[in-house]
Amino acid sequence: MERLQDRHPGLVVEACASGGMRADHATLSRVPVQSLTDQQDETLIPAIAAAAPTVVPPEQGAVWAYPQPDFDDERIVFTMVSAMLGRIHLSGRLDLLSGHQLDLVTAAIEVYRTYRRALADGIPRWPLGIPGWRDGWLALAIDCDDETFLAVWRRDSTEPTCDVPLSPASVSLLYPVDAAPCWTNDDTLRITLPEPYTARLLRLTNNPPGKA
Asked: What is the mean pLDDT of residues 4-29?
């Protein structure tokens, strides 16, 4: 593998953990991309995507996003957010999406391009704990110097509100770009997503050390 990449420095070799949950550090040290799963159920992918940085660095872990023509807007957003704190692998029937649906996908890619290089130096953490396979709410945060990128998913939880134990100086919405604010930020960050299977990607500005 190393000799191959020495001969062809522009070649991108992708490892794949699909099906057997195989990811070892000997392989990861020799490939730039690790495909994390071949799971195509968009409601299950968030648990995989959120837990992936326990093994694979965010800039190396590739998550497939499968927007489909029968998805409503929120389901497309839910699908795209799952890939936006890793390396986006985009698939699905993109050729059958409406113009509006394509705009949602395009917006996700454009937002992702504004911060993707920062992920290489980011440190992941899990404000709601390490994700469980059946958790109703999931969260993944990537700390990048004075800002944090936070993905939050509501899956099948009956609770529309989740308290995320973070106290940022400020919060802004990254994606979806035109959605209404979904948070309050008093003593803790409270996220409200009225409908199941919805997600948001936020940018948090962190307080200086020593300040709450």
From this structure: 79
Total domain count, the chain: 2
- Torsion over CA: 114, 120, 122, 126 (sign): positive
d(CA 187, CA 81): 26
My answer on whether 161 and 116 are in the same domain is: no
Residue 17 has what pLDDT? 67
Q: What is the pLDDT of residue 99?
A: 97
Its pTM stands at 0.91
Structural Rg of the chain based on CA atoms: 17
**E-assigned strand segments in the chain:** 14-16, 33-35, 61-65, 87-90, 123-125, 137-144, 147-154, 161-164, 170-175, 183-185, 189-192, 198-205
Q: What is the pLDDT of residue 135?
A: 97
| Other beta carbons less than 10 A from residue 203's beta carbon | 19
Judge if 179 and 116 occupy the same domain: no
In a domain, 211, yes or no: no
Assign 18 a pLDDT band (cuts: 50, 70, 90): low
Q: Is 114 found in the same domain as 9?
A: yes
Q: Which of 91, 120, 149 is the last residue of a domain?
A: 120
Q: Are residues 19 and 114 in the same domain?
A: yes
